[in-house]
Amino acid sequence: MKKIISILIVLITISSQAQNKKWTLIECVQYALENNISVKQSELDIATADIDRLTAIGNFLPSLNAGSSVSENTGLSFNPLTNNAQTTTFLSVNGNINVGYTLFDGLRNIRTLQRAKISKLASQYRLDKMKDDISLFVANGYLQVILNKANLNVLQSQNEVTQEQIERTEQLVEVGQLPRGDLLEIKAVNASEQQSIINAENSIQISLIGLAQLLLIKDYETFDIEDEGYDIVDSGIVNKDITEILAKSKETRSEIKIAEQNVELAKKDVQIAKGANLPTLSAFFGYNTRFVNTTSFNQQVDPDNPFLTQQIGVVEGTGQSVVGQFPNTIVQEVAADPFINQLYQNDGIGYGLSLNIPIFNGFATKGNIKRSKINLERSKFQLEQTELDLESTVYQAYVDAKGSFKSYEAAKSALESQELAYEYAKERYDVGLTNAFDFSQSKLRFDNAKIEVNRAKYDYIFKLKVLELYFGIPVTELKF
């Protein structure tokens, strides 16, 4: 019984720890990269590229095929062994083995293997880009939850101040130092703050559900994140020159590498299409044998009467008969030879070379070459467009990061001013030099300034990490 109780306690403890688990940003990113459907699909693309590469390697190996057939003939048929027509029923078994090898095919097999390797590399780059995009989505959703939680903390802490002000105002109203209208004004502010707190709690829950859905986590009720220890970690990327960032992004970004590999794939397609104009030389070797269970007939000398004496002519003038002896043969039915013996007796081989020279195929090859060249030009234009898009995106990310930093600094300055104004208004309200409405307005501006600092802070963190990502820093090495 004690063991059962101990096991139950352990299970309850483990379950409680699992429910109270708070996910870090790194854990969320890693979990998303392992479970996201789009990432899994990109991984399947790599597996498909491996199969294409294996198939391309197989084109360099000889082909080996074996075949056999069994048939039964009834009635008048040609005996495959004697090639004579006979009326009988017999079983026929045929077997063959064929080997083929392509000696030259216009270098298409080599080009196909090279293309398969490039295709796998392009699939890997697409997977890397997908992981970068998913990581950014997760980071944005994660920071949104932290922002909502930070805003909730601001509202709750300020509401605590409001609660204290209500108690103090009630005391001052009771002794007649403040009018009752001030108390009503403070209570109205409290009601508004309570509503804002409820809205902030709802925002947290909604953002948590959104993040959980992005991670494919279905347990929304217990899902939560670690909202402490995240601050601005600047690697100095904002102070770098934009040309340096742009050059680095062109070297490291997956979208550029994907476009470059697409150009290489198009070049290989052109080479493969041109290879169809060259002759194809193949070697072949074949072995075949057969077995037939039909009987046959042959002539043998009669052992009892081996010779026959017959007149073959007469002697002219005398009329004397001329006789001769001939073998006395009889026809005998012979059973089929054993199966193994026939396999050796009836086998045969064939080997040689086959040359195929393309002369005219209705402009199909010419059309494929032109089509491949057009695709090559299209892929070059796409590479150029990708470079322009990346340049525009990097410039935008650079401007956004600098702008969000300035916005964050301005928000902090505004918060300092609003905090001084709030403290001054609070002192005046406590001594009865200002009314509750003016004090509540000052407090509201102070609360909004705090919320704006939070928004500017996490907006700057996200845009800073986006810029670092374009600079070539891997997602797993981003510092928060």
UniProtKB/TrEMBL annotation:
GO terms for molecular function: efflux transmembrane transporter activity; porin activity. Keywords: Cell outer membrane, Coiled coil, Membrane, Signal, Transmembrane, Transmembrane beta strand, Transport. One of its GO terms (cellular component) is cell outer membrane. It comes from the Bacteria. Its main location: membrane. It is found in: Cell outer membrane. InterPro entries: OMP_efflux (IPR003423), TolC-like (IPR051906). Gene3D superfamilies: Outer membrane efflux proteins (OEP) (1.20.1600.10). Residues 242-276 form a coiled coil. Residues 1-18 form the signal peptide. Belongs to the outer membrane factor (OMF) (TC 1.B.17) family. This is TolC family protein. It comes from Psychroserpens burtonensis.
